[in-house]
Amino acid sequence: MEELIQQKLRHVGLRDKIVTAEEAASFIQDGMALGMSGFTRAGDVKVIPTALAERAKEAHFQVDVYTGASTGPEIDHVMAEAGIVRRRGPYQGAAAMRKRVNEGSVLYADAHLSHTPELVRQGIYGPLDFAVVEACAITEDGYLIPTTSLGNAPIFVQEAKEVLIELNVAHTDALEGIHDVYVPKHWGSREPIPLTKATDRIGTIGIPLDINKVRGIVITNIPDVPSPITPSDEETDQMAQNLINFLRDEIKAGRFTEDLPPLQAGVGAVANAVLRGFIDSEFTDLELYSEVMQDSMFELMDAGKVKVACGASITLSDGMSETVFSNFERYANKLILRPQEISNNPELIRRLGLIAINTAIEADIYGNVNSTHVCGTKMMNGIGGSGDFARNARLGIFVTKSSAKNGDVSSIVPMVSHHDHTEHDVDVLVTEQGVADLRGLSPKERVAVIIDKCAHPDYKDQLWQYYQDACAVAGNHHLPHDLEKAFSWHTRLMKTGSMKQQVTAE
Amino acid sequence: MEELIQQKLRHVGLRDKIVTAEEAASFIQDGMALGMSGFTRAGDVKVIPTALAERAKEAHFQVDVYTGASTGPEIDHVMAEAGIVRRRGPYQGAAAMRKRVNEGSVLYADAHLSHTPELVRQGIYGPLDFAVVEACAITEDGYLIPTTSLGNAPIFVQEAKEVLIELNVAHTDALEGIHDVYVPKHWGSREPIPLTKATDRIGTIGIPLDINKVRGIVITNIPDVPSPITPSDEETDQMAQNLINFLRDEIKAGRFTEDLPPLQAGVGAVANAVLRGFIDSEFTDLELYSEVMQDSMFELMDAGKVKVACGASITLSDGMSETVFSNFERYANKLILRPQEISNNPELIRRLGLIAINTAIEADIYGNVNSTHVCGTKMMNGIGGSGDFARNARLGIFVTKSSAKNGDVSSIVPMVSHHDHTEHDVDVLVTEQGVADLRGLSPKERVAVIIDKCAHPDYKDQLWQYYQDACAVAGNHHLPHDLEKAFSWHTRLMKTGSMKQQVTAE
């Protein structure tokens, strides 16, 4: 072990900074703001959060916790359960944290993932007291080599007063070299980000450390918690086919060639499954310029379909994790891990002309999308990067199954109960029913396309009925709504358990 | 006149292209798509639209009309009234067009102003048959010098099959030199936009013309239609003071120095009046990186407050127009006219770290903003550039008076009836009552700040009552709403003429 540590902790000036998790946790005081590494379970810190939760058994304290995105159980479960999180941002995705976010005992402000570094720069999260960051190694010349995510780690390390490091020897050495760390300067002296291709490397292989800010290094040996497996099903296969057929039509229309623009795909089961659909397509040499590198991206690599895959994290299921990390050399030369300020940057998304594929909870007849709040009130996870991508991509595509909860919920509703993406940012809507191409259409035209192409057949008549009612009230207006009935589907669901007008007893 | 034309039409190869407005109009066929110059009344084409409307008396035809933003009466009044506009985008602002947009006889898709060039590149507006563009001059080497706006003229000229030009001798020669034309390349070969300061010039002084595409040139002599005067009042003065005091607090908090970041201010009376408030402030050397250069910007120049003012158009009231254009040399060296793809580009807005000040029709207790649809259905103008700026600025500020219609309408409502800007993009809300700084706050915290600081006193109790009702239904959720009452204020307004719960008969 000692030899392994020497091999990983190569900066001699830091060797005397090794502390226990408990010692590291003891540096953190009530009321402090922490910037912690971790993006969608990957590369999060693991033992300091647990030690903090332990300490809470003796003395009450609370901290503000900012991360890249969601984390493994140590932050969003253990720390949440211990009641030591006062504020949380910019994203979460665990049951324990979600419960506290909803009841309001954790003050949660979800934010566009590309915005968080700017909020740090502005001091909106307060001065960050500690960056708490997982590392795979620290080089001779003081670069912190991150692990399976980059997320906000670079800006946290840069801006925090002090730095705590978890040096995790469980990660493969082969991770060294896949990171590309670039941090835009503060406003006033900021230059163009010099990335013009998804394959470009523009920064350093690690995060530059101010050695004097390093307060302690904890040695750990704990793998990332795998993500749940996300199997495809008949509907996601159909959605993938619908999407791919749409792209074929775009090629026929001359909008791009078979060398597709770089693709981004949102986190989670549906987007993952849709991306998997490219395996059996004619498309090859794919450039994946995304946020989270999920199972399907590695399946695409195994199928020889990928030119480059980049993102802010590598988040895999148990089985895929085993495959990938025990043969990491096979993938490494096609992988680039980027800070979320780069993976999600409007400047780059727009310059590269991405096709962005993100998941909707629900969409409405005019093309607005809810991606965060069930029935307008209950937070699921957060907006994440969907707004960064949908607003700036060449094609902003949202995917959702047309119905949920055994058909009791229509994913196409009269008006979304919470607005995360307005009609101006939703170019294309895909369900297993079909594809609604909304570009350039007026609202009244969008209604027909969305109901016709995307709604579940069980709800089509009911949607048309709503639209007729809306036109009776405001048909001479640009965007007819009957504000008294706009949420009637959601209130019916809450009262009867179904959005259907007449629930038949079978 | 002949001499004047020689002086303005300096490319000898184009001298034989001069045609009458009627001839030019005759080239335009039923079903064609036109990209016409014009941005907020400035620099629009004037005689070809009128000639088209005349032709419609003899033969029925319709065209699709895309512009920079809103236009003078020739397009959005005369052409609208003649019934010859089938589709319209991306923005309009005239009564005649608004009526047709709302009734649906003109198919209108409003869009983020920075998105329109990308939509043109993708062919979403169809292949553009004609660019119809106003010019101040055409140089010896074939550059079209635009007039008082740039807007989308460069992309229209570049992408359209043919070009029609209105060479308008009414404009001062001094306009030559204030344009800075830069058009990003198509995706795949696009490079960073090389602008790092508001003062930078990155392009050419005119739009490069493919001479073979020029189908005709019409000589005109008609000034722009002035915009209405936008007087300040007690409330806008107070809003300006509130905003300036907020900026002072930001300086005290160390977020920026007295050399303020570049400012953007939305179009229209309120934003114009708020900007005017800077005249009596300590701030100087202002960098105005905006969309429309309005009266107040020139008043600030007269007051010696401005280092540089740039935008996509110069849109002035009658009196100010007289002052500015008869002394244009006095202003010219501080002015830069940019294409809207540059003035509104997310890459640049974010790089420069703008303070963006835009106007809301209404905002809700969680910080969402409606800037387009009255009572959720009736289109006013369009989203314009507000989304480009609010999403990407360092500070996204929205301003609105706290009430309207003699107090019968509260501008702070339980839920906005149409969502243009979600809570993720609204950093700060300013009314004459005060300033709500929403950055980093959870939804439940935002409610208290917005009601306390921004709502009109007449509506505070009623807003709290709604929030209590919402908490009774969904208090254990992140963002409490009572979906049955969320729009009750709007439906009450429609029924009773007032949002107030009890309308007292006085």
TrEMBL record, chains A, B:
Q: Tell me the GO molecular function terms.
A: acetate CoA-transferase activity; acetyl-CoA hydrolase activity
Q: Which UniProt keywords apply?
A: Hydrolase
- rRNA-binding: is it a keyword of this entry? no
Q: Which parts of the sequence belong to the Acetyl-CoA hydrolase/transferase C-terminal domain?
A: 325-466
Q: Which InterPro entries match?
A: AcetylCoA_hyd_C (IPR026888), AcetylCoA_hyd_C_sf (IPR038460), ActCoA_hydro (IPR046433), ActCoA_hydro_N (IPR003702), NagB/RpiA_transferase-like (IPR037171), Succinate_CoA_transferase (IPR017821)
Q: Which GO terms describe its biological process?
A: acetate metabolic process; acetyl-CoA metabolic process
Q: What does the entry list as the binding residues for CoA? A: G266, V267, G268, A269, V270, I361, N381, G385, K405
Annotated Pfam families: AcetylCoA_hyd_C, AcetylCoA_hydro
Q: Which residues are catalytic?
A: E291 (5-glutamyl coenzyme a thioester intermediate)
Q: Report the residue ranges that make up the Acetyl-CoA hydrolase/transferase N-terminal domain in this protein.
A: 17-205
- Name the family the entry cites: Belongs to the acetyl-CoA hydrolase/transferase family.
What is this protein's name? Acetyl-CoA hydrolase
* The species this protein was found in: Caryophanon latum
